[in-house]
Design brief:
Blueprint lengths: L8 E3 L5 E3 L15 E5 L4 E5 H32 L1 H4 L2 H26 L7 H19 L6 H28 L4 H20 L9 H7 L8 H19 L1 H18 L4 H27 L10 H11 L11 H20 L5 H25 L2
Helix pairs in contact: 1-12, 3-8, 3-9, 3-10, 3-11, 3-12, 4-5, 4-6, 4-10, 5-6, 5-10, 7-10, 8-9, 9-10, 11-12, 11-13
Length: about 375
């Protein structure tokens, strides 16, 4: 048994010895190393300011690297094909190419940030457009009124939202991994689209829709404004709202949130359902741009969108995401595809390059996670 250490005696003003308590307080730490515990019923979160500064610096360096890569890629094609690549017509085409990728990437950013993945994006886009066009064909085809067009748009949004909702329910209620659940939806949605159309593309797209989608206020395609607005809204939701912070929390430590009583499954269902709504928007914009349902035109979409988001800095394993990085990541494959076409190089090389870049991006993401010990 250890012997208690007596308190030191000091003399009082009258000269008698008294026992003075020894201060038990720890020395105050400096601002860079001070630890702030945040206690709740289940865990303590420790924030170290110096580590946070290092991570912020790393994120800024990564974004700077993306910007440099984009500038180099853009400059390369501008040098080898200056007249064609830098023409106003091509710049508009480049912007229109980036629009569906960006809208899908906003949705995929939330999905990946929560620790999920969605391979059904291309098929859901196709099915959303097919259901809308099937309705329009049934009530008049190209010459329908604006009200009828709005109903068709609503049908596309509902179709996309329902597909996303089903994905979320399968993942949360049946406890099926997102990769398998969305792979199943990819086949089911595309199969449904082919059954509805008999395998033939529908082309009687309402003139009101095509005219609206092809508008160019200030010389800029109106779809660009739609995509930018969605990206800004996504950035605000991701970083400035409880929903966005919970999404990041789910991807970072899902079990901890469940112990705190937060409805993780409900959040996951919302994420996939809202993503489906965005896929429905892409389906409508695609119909308006190409005047066809393009059933076989979205096979590469999941790879391109996932690659763009991961290239932009969102972790494929959840818990970390940046919408600004997503925007930059979207522009890289868009410029690459456009430049390859302008240069007369087979577009199939885009798939090769995107696949390689995706693997490299995931490798560096894993490397950073190991260094952080996560």
């Amino acid at each position: 048994m250890s012997t208690p250490v007596p308190e030191p005696a000091v003399k009082s003003a009258e000269g008698s010895a008294t026992t003075a308590p020894v201060s038990r307080k720890l020395p105050r730490l400096s601002a860079k190393s001070q630890i702030f515990p945040i206690n709740d019923s289940t865990s303590s979160v420790v924030i170290v300011e110096s580590t946070k500064s290092v991570r912020n610096f790393g994120a800024q360096a990564q974004r700077l690297g993306l910007v440099i890569a984009l500038v180099v890629l853009f400059g390369f094609f501008a040098i080898i094909e200056p007249q064609a690549f830098l023409s106003a017509i091509n710049m508009r085409a480049l912007a229109e190419t980036a629009v569906p990728i960006l809208i899908g990437a906003v949705a995929m950013t939330f999905i990946l940030a929560s620790g999920g993945i969605d391979l059904s994006v291309g098929s859901v886009i196709v099915l959303s457009g097919v259901t809308a066009q099937t309705y329009w064909d049934a009530v008049g085809g190209r010459d329908v009124s604006g009200e009828i067009v709005l109903v068709g748009i609503l049908i596309a949004l509902v179709t996309g939202g329902v597909c996303g909702l089903i994905n979320g329910i399968i993942i949360t209620r049946l406890d099926i991994p997102p990769l398998i659940a969305t792979l199943g939806m990819m086949g089911a949605a595309l199969g449904a689209a082919q059954l509805i159309t008999g395998g033939q593309d529908k082309t009687n797209v309402p003139e009101i829709l095509t005219e609206a989608v092809r508008m160019r206020p200030l010389g800029i395609p109106v779809t660009v404004f739609v995509a930018v607005a969605i990206a800004i809204l996504g950035a605000v939701i991701l970083k400035r709202t409880r929903f966005g912070l919970r999404v990041l929390g789910i991807g970072s430590d899902e079990r901890m949130l469940k112990r705190r009583g937060i409805g993780v499954d409900a959040y996951k269902v919302r994420i996939y359902a809202l993503s489906g709504l965005l896929y429905g928007i892409i389906g409508i914009l695609t119909l308006g741009r190409f005047s066809t349902t393009a059933i076989g035109g979205q096979t590469e979409t999941p790879l391109v969108i996932i690659a763009a988001v991961v290239i932009g800095g969102t972790s494929l394993f959840g818990g970390s995401a940046t919408m600004l990085g997503t925007v930059i990541g979207v522009l890289i494959p868009a410029v690459l595809y456009d430049g390859l076409v302008i240069a007369g190089i087979e577009s199939y090389w885009q798939e090769v390059v995107i696949g390689i870049v995706l693997v490299v991006a995931v490798f560096f993401d894993q490397l950073q996670r190991r260094r952080r010990g996560t």
